[in-house]
Model the fold of this input.
Amino acid sequence: MLPAAVVVVVDLVAVIVAVGVDFVSGIVKARRQGVATSSRGFRRSVTKLVNYLLLLFGMLTIDGIIVLTMLLSRMAGGWNVVMIPWLTSAAAVSLTFIEAKSISENVGTGNPLADLGHILGHLRNLKKLLNNF
Done:
């Protein structure tokens, strides 16, 4: 059960971090374009995060039912399969990709794979700068 709990925590943290990075990249884009930010936009970000978390908790509930069924089956001498929250992880990966696309639209070309190399280059430069201190 511990590996499943770790997977769930990683899923939740990944989605929260992705939404946070998208939020910050949206603010940076707005400032770069000279567009004022508003509380309405901030509320939309909070609403998006809440909706994403509700989806993940819904998937987690379904995964919990599946895992409970597998545990009962295992105790009855039935199936012996790895119990990982597949639906929760699939939802988290999907939501993270959506956020990656949004971040890419905010800071780059709109193509997350093409922008990934550019972002990694910036991270390497940042690491070099930090090592100099």
